[in-house]
Design goal:
Length: 123
C-alpha cells in the first residue's frame, strides 16, 4: 500500500507541474504545444538522471525510485496529450508541425534520457 501512495503523491506533483508548464508555455495563438514538449523532454532527462543515480551507486531506495521515476516522471510526462496534439496537427493538415513535433519529441526525448544517464556517470 505504501508503494501505491508514493506513486500517487509523485504523480500528483508531476501532473500539477505539467499542467502549470502547459498553461505557461503552450501557445493558443500558434497552437504549438511548447509546454507538453518541455515536460516530456525534461521528464526524459529527469528519469535518466534518477535511474542513472540508482544504477551508479545504489543510493536510491526502491521507494524513492517509485516516488520520483514512476510517480513524478510518470505524472509529469504525457504520451496521451502528445498523441492528441499530433491528432490536431493532422486534422488541421499541418504536416510540417506534426513531423517536427513527433520527430523532435522522440529524438530529443531519447537523447535527454541518454544524456541524463551519461551525466551521472561523469559527475
Amino acid at each position: 500500500m505504501k508503494q501505491f501512495l508514493l506513486v500517487f503523491l509523485g504523480g500528483g506533483v508531476g501532473s500539477m507541474l505539467r499542467y502549470g508548464l502547459g498553461k505557461y508555455l503552450n501557445s493558443a495563438a500558434t497552437g504549438i504545444p511548447y509546454g507538453t514538449f518541455a515536460a516530456n523532454i525534461l521528464g526524459s532527462l529527469f528519469i535518466g538522471i534518477i535511474l542513472g543515480v540508482a544504477a551508479k551507486n545504489s543510493s536510491l531506495s526502491e521507494n524513492t525510485i517509485l516516488l520520483l521515476a514512476t510517480g513524478f516522471c510518470g505524472g509529469f510526462t504525457t504520451f496521451s496529450t502528445f498523441a492528441y496534439e499530433n491528432h490536431v496537427f493532422l486534422k488541421n493538415g499541418d504536416l510540417l508541425s506534426f513531423a517536427l513535433y513527433t520527430l523532435g519529441s522522440f529524438i530529443i526525448g531519447f537523447a535527454a534520457v541518454f544524456f541524463g544517464i551519461w551525466a551521472v556517470r561523469f559527475f
